[in-house]
Specification:
It comes from Agromyces atrinae. The chain has helices at 2-17, 22-36, 134-139, 163-178, 196-211, 229-236, 240-256, 271-281, 289-296, 314-320, 345-357, 375-378, 380-389; strands at residues 55-61, 68-78, 84-94, 103-109, 143-147, 185-194, 216-223, 332-337, 362-367. By secondary structure, the protein is an alpha/beta fold.
Length: 393
């Protein structure tokens, strides 16, 4: 019965495509993808063994931009505990002839979209629209990879602000791209991420030489990155955004570090917050913002029962998932909006100073009259100028 419904719906949307320009073709293609996508995310049983980056399943994306070819992918990765997991995401490659040495890869870390499986960017009707700078990277000959992170799209352990898990997911989808013959992807990688994704790619950069030594990471670029988690939460917890981020983050820490004594939510959240956060964690940041605000607003000022930067084990968990710039041995690009109310400019400036003191080569761009949502898009010109100046392989 389901297959018949899919065929009828597909015929209807394809009829529309016959008289539509490229943007409409992509919408129609996205609708077709959405009709058939859900079985793609069901994990095989049993899960086959595989090294990190091994592809388990692919599915063509009909919504890929003109001049490119795209896939949803399900691939092996590892979480913070070293456990083999399956993670979903997308891979998009230019078509046509590749250079003799193959195409470099840009591996993208997406900003917060939620924490539930259905909040994964690859589930959207136009999943590549989440990748800021996608067209530019494709036009410059890059293969673009974009992980959903563990627990989003495909079932798996929570990964929200769990730096090592996110970072490995970012590296492993770059590995996965190389095993799709049409991409002709090589080992050269640029990492690029926004907000939560900034934390993800910074952790990826810090671990790449040990975790994925076959990849040649040439640089890591971030826009308004989540770096020092204690400072981030302390600065934001007094508004609805901070409560929302806190609901995702504290739930993830409680689940991922469940074996750590004192990691129960009741040790850091008020009783009313403990009751509310499961509902919030089922809601996606975009599309269900109104519902999130309705739950979060009454919790402002009454969310935390203590200071997580001082109460253990929360202080240690926050510190372990904050970026240590001394682990990064590649050039870094950092963009920050000067009126960002979520990731405060002074927090990013402190991270940049610490990175420079640790010996990291950092190019820092503060973009005027720019807040959190637009910083990655408005930094693209500076980003590509920085990439052009990187040492060539």
């Amino acid at each position: 019965m389901r297959s018949a419904i899919v065929l009828v719906a597909a015929a209807a949307v394809l009829a529309l495509a016959a008289c539509s320009p490229e943007v409409d073709r992509r919408v129609v293609g996205g609708a077709l993808d959405e009709l058939s996508e859900h079985p793609f995310y069901v994990l095989p049983d049993p899960i086959p063994a595989g090294e990190p980056g091994t592809v388990v399943r692919t599915e063509r994306l009909h919504s890929a931009p003109d001049g490119s070819i795209g896939w949803r992918v399900l691939y092996h990765s590892q979480d913070v505990h070293g456990t083999d997991i399956l993670v979903s995401g997308i891979v998009i490659s230019p078509t046509g002839d590749a250079p003799a040495g193959g195409r470099p890869v840009m591996s993208w870390g997406h900003p917060t979209t939620g924490a539930a499986e259905r909040c994964a960017p690859s589930l959207g009707i136009d999943p590549d629209d989440w990748v800021e700078g996608l067209y530019d990277f494709l036009n410059k000959g890059y293969v673009v990879t974009a992980t959903d992170y563990s627990g989003m799209g495909a079932a798996g352990p929570d990964s929200y602000l769990i730096g090592t898990t996110e970072g490995r997911n970012v590296l492993d989808i770059a590995r996965a791209a190389r095993s799709i013959p049409e991409t002709k992807a090589n080992d050269d990688v640029i990492l690029w991420g926004h907000s939560q994704g900034g934390q993800a790619v910074l952790f990826a950069a810090g671990e790449a030489s040990d975790y994925a030594p076959e990849l040649s990471v040439h640089g890591v670029a971030v826009a308004a990155p989540a770096t020092e988690l204690g400072g981030l939460l302390s600065a934001d917890i007094g508004d609805v955004s901070g409560v929302t981020i806190g609901s995702y983050a504290f739930t993830a820490f409680s689940e991922v570090y469940a074996s750590t004594p004192g990691s129960e939510l009741s040790t850091i959240l008020t009783p009313v917050a403990v009751e509310a956060v499961p509902k919030m964690n089922e809601l996606c940041l975009l599309g269900q913002n109104k519902e999130l605000h309705e739950i979060a607003t009454p919790l402002i000022g009454g969310f935390l029962s203590g200071d997580p930067t001082k109460v253990e084990p929360w202080a240690t968990m926050l510190a372990e998932n904050s970026v240590d710039p001394s682990t990064i041995d590649v050039p870094m690009f950092v963009a920050q909006g000067d009126i960002d109310e979520l990731v405060k400019p002074e927090v990013t400036e402190g991270f940049v100073d610490a990175a420079r003191k640790a010996g990291v080569t950092v190019e820092f761009e503060q973009i005027p009259k720019t807040g959190h949502g637009l910083i990655a898009l408005r930094a693209l010109d500076e980003l590509f100028a920085w990439i052009e100046r990187l040492p060539q392989p």
